[in-house]
Specification:
The protein is an all-alpha fold. The protein contains 9 helices and no strands. Helix content is 75%, strand content 0%. The termini are far apart.
């Protein structure tokens, strides 16, 4: 049975499932941030459990394939080593999964934090969309909006 799973879930299929699979979570965060569905499925641990299982599956898949995980540490040796790592599809899909999980986590935090300060979901629309594409920039934009609603500048929470 594991062989059937391994033959079906190729890297390309996993990439497509990941890329399209996070979109419903993002649509809920953007359009229905205060709904019960958002609270249960998106701003909880649920999507990260799914992404965590995908990550574990990928590590298992690459371990069985003979992938050298120690090679990943070469990214700290220079920009050219990082570029070489991005040519490896195993490293690329692991980074993509990491990217999707972190950006979704940041967006869920933005939604929960905005509810704490009663920030309108319409004001959150732009920071959430920017967080989807460029996580840190969306967080900075949200932080600027948050300053006006919290009426204080806080570097930590």
């Amino acid at each position: 049975m594991i062989d059937q799973i391994l033959t079906f879930f190729t890297i390309e299929i996993i990439y497509l499932w990941l890329s399209f699979g996070v979109l419903p979570f993002w649509f809920i965060l953007i359009f229905f941030p205060q709904s019960r569905i958002s609270g249960i499925f998106v701003t909880s641990i649920f999507p990260f459990i799914i992404l965590g299982f995908v990550y574990v599956y990928l590590i298992y898949y690459f371990f069985n394939d003979g992938f050298d995980f120690l090679q990943n540490f070469e990214l700290y040796l220079g920009i050219y080593n990082l570029a070489n790592l991005f040519e490896n599809e195993a490293f690329l899909i692991l980074i993509w999964t990491h990217f999707l999980a972190i950006n979704l986590f940041c967006a869920a935090w933005i939604v929960r934090d905005s509810q704490k300060y009663f920030i309108s979901k319409y004001l959150n629309l732009v920071p959430l969309v920017i967080t989807y594409f460029v996580g840190p920039l969306g967080i900075v934009l949200y932080w600027i909006i948050r300053i006006f609603f919290a009426k204080k500048i806080s570097l930590f929470d």
